[in-house]
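cache lookup: miss for this entity combination. No prior model stored, computing from scratch. Input as submitted by user K.M.:
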Amino acid sequence: MELNQYLEMFIEESKEHLQACSEHLLELEKNPEDLTIVGEIFRSAHTLKGMSATMGFEDLADLTHKMENVLDAIRNEKIKVTAEIFDVVFESVDHLEAMVYDIADGGDGKRNVQSTVEQLKRIESGETTPAKQVVTLATQETVATTAEQVDFKLMYDDFEKTVLLQSSEQEFNAYEISITLRDDCLLKAARVYMVFEILEKNGDVIKSSPTVDKLEEEQFDNEFHVAYISKECAEDLQKMLMKVSEVDLVVVNEINQDVFLAASGVKQEQEVPQTTATVSNEATPVQTPKAASTSNGNGNGKANHATSKTIRVNIERLDILMNLFEELAIDRGRLLSIAADIKHGELDDTVERMSRTMGELQNIVLTMRMVPVETVFNRFPKMVRQLSRDLNKQITLNIVGAETELDRTVIDEIGDPLVHLIRNSVDHGIESPEVRRTKGKPEEGTVELRAYHSGNYVFIEIEDDGAGINRDKVLAKALSKGVVTQEQSLTMTDKQINELILASGFSTADVISDVSGRGVGLDVVKTTIESLGGNISIESTQDVGSVFSIQLPLTLSIISVMLVEIESEIYAIPLSSIIETSIIRNSDILNAHNQKVIDFRGKVVPLVFLEEIFEVPRQEKNDDGFYSVVIVRKGDKLAGLVVDSFIGQQEIVLKSLGNYLTNIFAISGATILGNGKVALIVDCNALLK
Amino acid sequence: MTNALEQKNLKVIVFQLADKEYAIPVSHVKGIEKLMHITRVPKTVRYVKGVINLRGVVTPVIDLRERFNLPISGNEDTTRIIIIALETMEVGFVVDSANDVLDIDADSIEQQPEVVGSLEEEFIAGVAKLENRLLILLHLDKVLNPLD
């Protein structure tokens, strides 16, 4: 088999499976008793093992195999989940990830994992430390004591709970029915069929254990359970079912809210009581679609992935598609003008219809590049978990708005800055539990990572309830490092001082810790974000917390520009830099230090003659006594770009000038105009020093 | 280029510049285009004529006459832009005309460019003699690289 052609797919899928492992592990850590989660992890690990063995990555397959054994033991309730096991399994996933990344970088995926493997083996054989066992025993006891109250056999997920509880509101009764067949029953499947026929005539079966498939295949002992809603009373049901021959015993238990709460307490004892209560009381229909896909937890874990069907497309192909599309758009422009000249009714109609279709097509082509930030965000829960363990802090990470979509190119770039900022929040922001207690805060710190759309921008914010930025310390440091002068410091606002920590070579950590302060400062974050056309700002209150807010353009490939003309050349000026345009009189121009300036709303603004900067060849000097000026800004600095005339505002598709022409002064890229010609994009930042 | 020279047979695109014939291995040629609108790019070296819209890709264009310090001529009907792909770069060469694809026997290529003895010699990888034609093989790396 030619493996290379599958390598890329293998790497992508491995990453996906590992991500699923991490996510489910984190989930399992919160609900250690929920064995369906273990099943999910097992499935991902199993697939990964198979894939890596096929691809010939033995080390990868081997470690996955060991991890799988442990998961299998947990799944079959041979061993109990403990914190130690979590650490080792997480470690394995880390190793696996490192291997996959190594393979992605062209390596052979080999790695020394001896100690992890040994630990996995040890766990698998059931050797855990005595202290951990005590803990496990203790939880088991609590399970046993609460379990006595109700004797329910089935486990329900949120969706099923909702259905069962809602049924009672609609005057249906919810039951859990246990049917025991006689030991000498010969045709178990037939009996099951008869039971189900009676049940379905009188109501609806919500769930059965074992599943219907297994019941039909007689894969059960003598007993099975169904969750059932019906208008019949329990007694009648019992009588009806007992009529089926070879049925030994029928127990009908009514499920009402109280029973249900207690039952869920038993089955998922880790679940916090309040959450159970909200689920059962409100029974929000919003939750149901998602829950529905994960219901029937037996054996179809694929349901999770099937919710959004996607296809992986190489980004280069999308770029090609985009280019072809633009070609088409340019031709449309030509067709439109031809149709306007010819004035032929049918042609007009056709061209117009084509235009509309193109508009819709354009939308699709552009949104195809959009990816939810989830792909970046989902690596953080594990990172925060690890960091808080390393630093002995208690931290929860909340993620909000992971479905927010951003251009693929932005997504690729934004990961590292976010890692820096989250590390910063965890390391410098959140205090140790002791310090938090003395400050009267809960011991557990919170970091919230959120993303949302606003206008043409996406905001990503990282908020922590930690120590906040120490204004005096930052200022002192900035002064000592010469980042600001004494005079400047007097007039700085709090916000400006906060943002000093983004200055290059700046670190306020007294002790360089393992986590941050490794010489890579937040200045890198600022640079990266600005290179994406974004912006970062900091709000912080001492002892209350900080918010790092990143503003990013929705997409990098399309920007709004003002097209201007100089002689016969057309240039595009990004709207994001423009404050306004104006026409000024020759006499409004003043001379200051050999620099032509204008008075713009009380501010002295230097004029930049683009024809000089760009050395535009002139046929004849235009001298009608007026100048067209585009006022642009960089930070709080302004300049007036003098052009011949304004053409108008337009959305353009950004193009690079290629690898041959790099670092062209004051040109940040190019675009293709409707007439097929290339126009250059002015880099205002380079013009304002 | 050197690798290409080691091959037994070399397929080349032949083009005309001033009164000489030049050759580029066909493996590096992505296409030959008619002259189209070139957008001037300010503040670049003199021989970079600007950029063109090559089916949606913004591609820089070099005037080879200017690159080789040959006398500048006006654009004729025969003027072509040869699109070259070298590593990750794509660049167009403006040439007087391009109309031949030839197989050159590697043995007929002489490595020593002294016979030419002009300013462009640093861009020359070798010379091939074909019956009564003299083809100058371009050293693409050098033509493209030092963009000073």
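stored under new cache key. The mean pLDDT of chain B is 82.
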